[in-house]
């Protein structure tokens, strides 16, 4: 008997899915040469859809549910995806603001790990997770699709031919920062082609780089380049968030700065700057995002997992802790948020060859719920990371949260912006009372703040101006801020400027006032570059650029915020002086000591590293230090002082710096110093072209004009054989 054949099994008519499981790491969209792995963290979502768009990023072609969920990460692999693919996410979950959850799948979300964004944010009510104008406010739920209004993510191919380029490692003692804005530096530069002005390509034009190189600085510090959002209220007024402290994607350069539309442009800029011996430092904003407070839009992290990414009020999770002053605060105590930030830093350092970072409102990054802690997981993570500990890490050590002022409070391995230097030096040259002792501390790298735990003088990043505040020209030209162009009734910006107009508010034809202003600018530069610590110069200050009294040009993507390269005679004169100063600083290692100058007498060597002298040539007395009317003194740096921990005399030049913030001239008696025969004046800010005609004998009188500074070098005794 023959066995009957069984009928073939009936299979449902289903197209086999092209989607594969993929991996939960690395996070983001990763091209492996065959396809793309998508992975996104969310601890509280119930479902994640990957949305694919056409090349223009305008038409949503497909929604694909990510199939796997591993260790709080949704993931899937698309074998037919490739670089250039435009995508975004929709994330499902509870809409329960009172418990911290704001999921709304109607809102297209930016991948926090997106390496490139395309398109720009178009403000619309559809961007908000709640219905604007609804009686329930942000507790309501909005069902409009936000996709037409949101920048989209783009899958990149990370391959790049770097040639011989690598991160530069400029020693800290030789470092000199040059803070600038990608857009501002090139918008008005005559040698930059119109098509690339305001972009990374504009910054790498030979003439721009040549100016920076010839100035003598070592490190270009760029205001934020991470993709950021323009505030709605600024756009309504025809302005933009020019500075860019409003990040939304920590791995993507802002599309506005890419003339080519390709991220390779950033890498090429870095390579060009490196070729000129210049480091690239990024100003980074990891303390908050552009999503604002509970009334802000849902663009990325709020819709992915609000309760994980942000610090919420413990008693009412509807509201955000606002230590940044911008509406929200990222929660870096959460391991996955911490991972995102450190992954971002490593990406820029490793893949983009960036040499260091300046952290905006860095105190936030080290704050737990009970306050700032130098052993915060973020600070620990940076210190132990084999890559990040090699790059320069600079903190802006303050924010507006509780215990926010932490100058001197960051752990070893970090340098810090020193606002005490800024304020004291401004006050001294303005002629304020009682500045001498503080001024001396600033000239010696603020040892009372930093001389502990093996931190070095370079820890103190000294500055007189920064992007935030008056330019150097305006510091000596205005008593008050003039921010009318910002359209906030001159209410914005700091009122504590420690500025002085020298007799007339703003521009004047008075030659005496203009001469005094120019001399004060030379005094500021000389103080900055002769002080121990790491100096920072703001682009344009070297030739006296003005913002016409605006001390808060954050919204001025205009001639107020851009650098004017059309230099007048005063600008050319100041530039020449600053170049000379930087060369002098580089030629005297004693101005860049790796040890703090403390003024103690070394018995074995018979040397004092720094001596403070009154104009009569004697050491400053306690009474003189405490004299509120004191405006003049001298700083003697002995080149024989021990240079390192090795007990051995130094062989540097011995220098004498004389300061006079009086309006009248002061006679200084030039002191007698061992192993020397006379003093040679290297420069005097009263006359920038001054050259010492002959050595000045010990005990002779040097008249230092009012509001001036002079530098002298010790002429060494000639040996009997004439050497």
UniProtKB/TrEMBL annotation:
The cross-references to CDD domains, in alphabetical order and at most eight, read: AmyAc_Glg_debranch (cd11326), E_set_GDE_Isoamylase_N (cd02856)
* Segments forming domain Glycosyl hydrolase family 13 catalytic: 198-585
- Keyword match Hydrolase: yes
Q: Gene3D superfamilies under this entry?
A: Glycosidases (3.20.20.80), Golgi alpha-mannosidase II (2.60.40.1180), Immunoglobulins (2.60.40.10)
Which stretches of sequence are listed as region Disordered? 481-506
Name a biological process GO annotation: glycogen catabolic process
Biased composition, class Low complexity, residue ranges = 491-501
Q: Print the keywords alphabetically.
A: Glycosidase, Hydrolase
Q: What is a GO molecular function of this protein?
A: amylo-alpha-1,6-glucosidase activity
Q: Which domain of life is it from?
A: Bacteria
Q: One short Pfam family name for this protein?
A: CBM_48
Family indicated by similarity: Belongs to the glycosyl hydrolase 13 family.
Q: Supply the PANTHER family for this chain.
A: GLYCOGEN DEBRANCHING ENZYME
The record's NCBIfam families line, in alphabetical order, gives: glgX_debranch
Name-wise, this protein is: Glycogen debranching protein
Origin species: Pseudomonas weihenstephanensis
**Upper lineage:** Bacteria, Pseudomonadati, Pseudomonadota, Gammaproteobacteria, Pseudomonadales
